[in-house]
Amino acid sequence: MQRFSSYRDFDWPLLTLIAILSVISVLEIKSATAMTKFHGFDHKQIGFLAVGLFLMFVISLIDYHLLVDIVPWLYGIFLALLIAVPFVGTKVLGARRWIKLPGGVHFQPSEWMKLVLILSVARFFWPRAGRGLSWTDIGKAFALVGIPLLLVLKQPDLGTSLTYVPILAIGLFLGGIDWRKATILIVIFAAIGFGAVKSGKVLKPFQLARLTSFMDPNLDPKGTGYQIRQSMIAVGSGGLWGKGANQGTQTQGDFLPIPYTDFIFAALSEEHGFVGAVVVLMLYFLVLMRLIQNAQTASDIPGTFIVMGVVSVIVFQIAVNVGMVVDLMPVTGIPLPLLSYGGSSVLFTFLALGIVMNIRMRRFVN
Amino acid sequence: MTSPPTIDREEKLSPAKLHATQYVIVLILGILIFGLWRLQVLDVDNYRSLAEANRIRKVPVLAPRGRIFDREGRLIVDNYSSTSCFLIRDQIRDADAELPKIALGLHIPIEQLQATLRRFAAAPKYQPIPIKQDITPDEQAFIAAHRDGLPELETLEEQRRLYPRDGFAAHLIGYVGEVSEAMLEKDSRYDFYQPGDVVGQSGVEATYDAYLRGTDGSRDVIVNSHGKEVGQLGQELATPGHDLKLTIDLDLQIAAEKALEGKNGAIVALDPHTGEVLAMVSRPSFDPNQFSVRVSHSYWNSILDNPDHPLLNKAIQAQLAPGSTFKIIMSVAGLEEGVAQDLRVNCQGGASFYGQFHACDKHHGGVDIHNAIPYSCDTFYYTLADKLGIDTIAKYAKSIGISLKTGIDLPQEATGTMPSTAWKLKTQHERWYPSEAISVGIGQGAVTASPIQLARALGGVASGGVFHRPHVVMPGQIDDQTQASIYESYPGAAEAKIALNADNWQIITDGMAATTTSGTAGVAHLEGIDFAGKTGTAQVMSHAGLAKAAKGRNTTPNAWFVGMTPRRNPDVVVAVLWEHGDWGSNSAKLGAQMVDAYVTKQRTKDHNLKLADTPAPKPEATPTPAAAPTASSTGQ
Known about the structure:
The complex is a heterodimer of chains A (366) and B (636).
Chain A: H1 12-33, H2 41-61, H3 64-88, E1 90-92, E2 95-100, E3 106-107, H4 109-125, H5 135-153, H6 158-175, H7 179-199, H8 205-215, H9 224-238, H10 249-252, H11 264-297, H12 301-325, H13 343-361
Antiparallel strand pairs in A: 1-2, 2-3
Helix pairs in contact in A: 1-2, 1-11, 2-13, 3-4, 4-5, 4-6, 4-12, 4-13, 5-6, 6-12, 9-11, 11-12, 11-13, 12-13
Chain B: H1 15-42, H2 44-55, E1 56-61, E2 68-69, E3 75-87, H3 95-105, H4 110-119, E4 129-132, H5 137-145, E5 153-162, H6 170-173, E6 176-178, H7 181-186, E7 198-200, H8 203-207, H9 209-213, E8 217-223, E9 229-236, E10 244-245, H10 250-259, E11 265-271, E12 276-283, H11 297-305, H12 314-317, H13 327-336, E13 345-347, E14 350-353, E15 356-359, E16 365-367, H14 369-375, H15 378-388, H16 390-400, H17 421-428, H18 437-440, H19 451-462, E17 466-467, H20 480-489, E18 496-497, H21 502-515, E19 532-538, H22 544-548, E20 558-565, E21 572-578, H23 584-613, H24 629-632
Parallel strand pairs in B: 2-10
Antiparallel strand pairs in B: 1-8, 2-3, 3-4, 3-5, 6-7, 8-9, 11-12, 11-21, 13-16, 14-15, 17-18, 19-20, 20-21
Helix pairs in contact in B: 10-23, 13-15, 13-16, 14-21
C-alpha cells in the first residue's frame, strides 16, 4: 500500500492555534521572570520552541506505522534507561530524573517514556479493539503502563508518573472495556489510592504534605500551603479583566511560586483576569477539538489511538495544572502544556503534535 | 518485529467514543472555568485586599529630633543622616561566593559577618538582619553598584544623634535609645509610644522627649515576598522635633569640663536670680554616641564595671555628706535663732560632748561667728549644734532645701537626707540621742546632699533667702501648660523664700567672702573679684576603724566647695564636688577657675557692649551698692 503525504495536508489551523499559545507562553514567561533572577527565560523558551517546531516537522516525515512497528524496541530501551536512572542519573532537588549526555544536555527518560507509552498502548490495543477486553488483556495493559509508572514514581517524580495514567485510561476506554469491569477497576484503585495515602509508605513526606495542604492551605503558611494560598490570591485578585500585562503584584512581587512553570496559569489569570484565562482555555478547547477531529479522520486504529493518547495527556495536564491553580486539585508539579517554561515539556508537546500531524498527513489511503 | 498480520489496517473505531471524550473535555473545562469564576468574580474583593496586604507595607519615616543649643544659640547636639546595611538571606544565591565579596566591599571581617549570620540563624530567612551601621558613602556606592549581583543587600536611612565627643555634658544632655518594655508598660508618659521607638533615656533628652521628638511620618512602600522594597505608593511627611535652647553657657560648661578633667566628681553652676543652670558636669563621663539606638555589649559592660559609676549624674544624684559647706546652713539657723551672735568658743583642737571628744583640724583659739565661717572652726559648730538641737537644725535645713529635691528638670534627682528625731524614729525606729547632733553641725553624720542642692541652698542664702527652682531649659520656648506639666513631673523644693534678717545675711556673706581671702579657701583667692564661698572636707569613713574595714576602697575625704560672685545677690554660684579630693581648698581652686571664667566673660562682654554703645568716651557711672536683701531678691 502506497501512502501519499504532503504539507498541504499539514494541520495548519492546529499549528496556528499552537503558535498563538506559544506567543502567549513567551510573553507570560517574560512578565513572570522580569523582576527575578530568571529574567531571560523567555528567550530560552523561544529557543526550545524553535527546536520543538523543527522536531515536529522531522517526526511528521516518518510514517507513524514505522514508529508503531519499532515501538517494542523503544519501550525496551526506555525501560532500561528508567531502571538505570537511579544509578547513573544526576540528582537535582532531591530526585534523580536526568541523565547527563555528553555536551551538557540533560535528558529525562521519563518524559520520552510518555511518547513511547502512547505508541505502545496504540500497538497493544490495535488487535484487541472492539473485541471485548478480557481480564488478561487488562492485566497486560496495566503491566505495560504500570512498570514504567512505578519506576518514575520511585525517582521520585509523582507528576510525570501520573501523566502515564490517562494514556492507560484512554486505551482501556477506546479498547472497549465494558462498564462492569471499568467500575470494578475504579473501585479497586480508589481503595488502593486511599490506603497508600493513609499508610504514608508510597508517597514521600513532601508529596503527602502537598496533598494535605491542598485540604487546608493554612496548615503550613510558608510551605506548600503558602504556594496554594499565594496562587489563589493571585488568581482571585486578578478579577474579571486582570491587572494588566506585567502588572500582577503577586507575580511581579515574587509572592507567586515558580510563576514561569507550574504556576504560569496563576500569573496569567492575575494579569489578564477571568477573561484572559477563559480565552486561553478556549484556545486549548479548540486545540483539543482539532486533535479529536484528527483522531476521527485517522486512516486506522493505531492512528486514532495515538492521537487520543496525546489528547488524554494534554487534557490531564490542563485539568491537574489549572485545577491546582484554582484550588480544585492538589499541588503535583505537573506543567501546563504549551504554556509552562521548560525544554522537556516543550519537546514532548511538539513531538506529540508532530506525530498527530504525521497521522493527519497519512489519513488518505491511496 | 512487525505488526500482527491478521489485522485489517483499514478498520476504524466507532465515533461515539470520540464524541464521549469531547463531552468529558467540555465538562472538565467547565469545571475549571467555574473554579476561575469562583475566585475571580465571586470572591474578587477578598483576594484583592489580600493581595494589597501582601505587598503594601507601612514604613515609618523617623522624624529628626530637635537640635539642642546653649543659651547663646550655639549648637550642642545635632543630627546626621546615617545609612545602615541589612542582609536579606533568602536573596542569597551562592553564599560561598557572595559573602566574601560583601565582607570586602563593606569592610567587615568575614568572621564577623559569619558570626552575625550565626547569631540570626534562628530568625526567619526573609527578615532583614543588620550587618553594618553608619556605612560610608564609599560602601553605599558599593551596594548601589551591585544591586543586581548582590540583591541581598538592603540599606535603610535614619537620622541619628550626634553628641559632643569625649562625654562632654553627657549627663546633662542624656542619650536616646529604644524604648524599653518596662517603660511602655509602667510609665504612663509612654502610653503613645510603640516598641522600637527611639526615645530620650536620660538627661534633657528624656525630660523634654515629647518636645524634641516631633512626629514620625510614614511611607506606603511596595515590597516583594522577601520584604524587599520595590516601589512606593504615597507618603506622610515627618514633622521634625522642636529645637531646644538650654540655659547652659557653653563657655562656662567648657571651663567646668576642664576643671574636672581626670577627676571624679561634679560641678554645677547656676544663676541664683533665676535658677538657670549655667554649667553641669559629672565625672567620669560616657560617650552618648555609643548609646544612640543600640549600645554595644562591650561598651555597656565597661560602663557597668566602672566602680566610679559613669552613668550617674553626680551633680544631681550624688548623696554625700556635705561637710563644712553645711556650716552656712548652721549659721543661718544659729543666727536666726539668736544663738550664734553671742556664741564664743575657745578652740583647742576640738572639744568633748557627752563624754566623747570631737576634733577640730586646728587650734583656732577664740572663735565667734565672724571667723568661724572663714576658718571653718568645727568646735564652734559642734557647740552651736548642741545648743540648737537636731530638730531646729532640721527645720532650717529643710526650709533651705536639704533633703528635698530641688525640682530640676532632669530625671532621677536624688533627695539626700536631713536627720531629725522624727526621721530617726521613722527610719530606724529608735529615739534620737542629743550627742548625735554634734557631728551634724559640721555636715557629717547622717546628713547628705547633692551638689545641685548645695548650689541652690548657698546661692539662695547669699540672695537673702530667696530660692529658685534650678532648670536647664530656657523658659518661654514651650507653651506654659506643657512646661507646667514637665515641672509637675519633677517635684521638689522649687521656689521658696525664707525670712533672713539683713544683719545675719551680711554676717554670713561677709564670712564667705573672707573664706576666699584669708580663710580655708585662701589659696583660691581671685584678685579684683568679689568672690565668696565655703569649703567642705567630708570624711568618707567616719571612724578610723571603719576606714580599715574599707578593704582597699579609697578613704580619702571628698572635697567640696560652694562659691559665688558677688558675695551678696550673686550672679553665679558654683558647687564643686571632687570625690577623694582630700581638702576643700582643692575644690575651691576649681570653683575659683569657674568664677574667674564667668567674670572674665561678663567683663569682656560688658566691655564690648560698651564699646559698641558709646561712640564717644563718657564718664563712668557709679556702681550700684548691694541692695537690701528683701528688695532685690526676686527675679533679677
